[in-house]
Amino acid sequence: MGYPHKTHPRETAVLSKHFGDPAARSLEGWKARGGYRALEQALAMTPAAIVDVVKASGLRGRGGAGFPTGMKWSFMKPGDGKPHYLCCNADESEPGTFKDREIMRWTPHALVEGCAVGAYAIGAETAYIYIRGEFTEPIQRMEAAIAEAYQAGILGANAMGSGKRVDVHVHKGAGAYICGEETALMNSLEGKRGNPRIKPPFPAVAGLFAQPTTINNVETLAAVPHILNNGAEWYKAMSLSNPKSTGTKLFSVCGNVARPGNYEIVMGFPFKDFLYDLCGGPLPGRKFKAVIPGGSSVPIQTMVEAEATLMDYEGFVAQGTMLGSGGVIIFDDAQSMPRMIARLARFYAHESCAQCTQCREGTAWTTKILERIAAGHGTFEDLDTLLEIAENMTGKTICVLSDSCAAPVVSGIAKFRHEFEALITGKRSSSVPVAGRPTDGSQPRAVVGAA
Amino acid sequence: MSVAHAPYEPVFTGKRAEDLKAILLRYPNKQAALLPALWIVQEERGWVSEEAMTEVAQALDVTAAYVKGVVTFYTMYHQHPVGKHFIQVCTTSPCLCAGADKVTEAFLRHTGCNELGVTSPDGRFTVIEVECLGACGFATPVQINADTIENVTPEKVPEILAGLK
Asked: Which of these, A2, A321, A359, B31, could form a disulfide with A7 (CB 3.0-4.6 Å)?
């Protein structure tokens, strides 16, 4: 299968195997495709044994940070007398990323199963799947799957007849990128404003409702049943580059490209082949100019860098960027980089929770200056100011939203400085205004750049 | 009597009260049901009024000011009535580079709204730009109330609007 394209012969479809197949959505359909065997097996194991298998597989977090999943789980101490919680981060809001959306739309039971295994492995009786509010269809699919799983006795007080309690609930967000940050998500789930928390304490010590909590991305949890079914060695063997990056990874591809969509490849796949073969290369008559390979928060790559990249955690770092969430944004030679970066800055300014001064002021001023440059009213001094602001926005705040805004600005000016300078000297005027004005006026924090 | 002075009809009665009771069972405290409770209000009324915030506050044992603080944090809760069809066009960079600005213009023109965030004179439409809808591979995604429409181009806009009741 595959969605929106048929699976390419060079893809390795594990998580995406049933994308595009509506029959895989029901409990019956999921069981017919091998579903819930892993959960049954897991409930007969000790939590520690499950954690060991996940550790041995080399699975790392698919949400952005790439932290080893088994190690994260091992921070939890089942049986310590406290309630434990599992949070599934389905707040997928990173520009360029739309993989979790497809997992939930096509294979909702895969996530229910992954959550149930994960909850049991960390000694939690309750898992919350926090889904962004705009994801109306994924929410509906997940709720339907959860209802089916309760009906069949897979979830509940006696999960699959094991005598163990596993509850899974959907919690619907309400429009806030920052709630994808783990501690902001927990605050939001607790009925608070989605402000990130200062760490420590880390979630494993005091997370949701101040209890020991683990938080994992949708794709991470969905991979776990496959690891239990096929073994850690099977998963670990899926690597074309180095033993630190194992398994398959979903990459969401968007922007100026022939075949946008989700692609699942083995870690270490050559990025050049990925862009030109799997994704079909540029649109007719165009050339690729730049790539943001891991969601909008990672540094921009030139095509020289991108084409030399191996697609794994270390491979992207070696070429000046990060794997991040795997959201590949491609810009071609018809695009103005200052304009695109200005619009990204506006995104971060809109989404800043405004707790930290460096972020609240930094994202707003960065947006104002970039939009001024894009409109042809910039000065050379503006470029220095932008870099100075970016320096003050990096590594100085409670969470990394501020750093995320600085990343495309710094890398953009470093790698595409000539485009900024051309706008400043008036050699090329920005013909199109920057989209993204304050929205409906009802949301005070949405008004960015007001004098 | 103007609408503003009509007596407030509580949301959480009958089935909606039962819904809230069921939601409360999922969490160890009442406050955690705040976002779900506000969603129920918005589904019922189309927006979240100050009176509704007070009702939610009483139901969950928090203050009305606290509820307002939460409501104002999240962009999806409407603090005033919006058009019958609330149209959100994604214009973040991955969609902008695929022409999302033209889609926004088409919606503004064909709905008669003309301006972002302003409801059309007939009360049917409100158009806003939204930050990343998480459907970047299907540029331009547009959300109309609870429905997401993929691959919208300016040319498709009149047909999409004609299909709305």
From this structure: A2
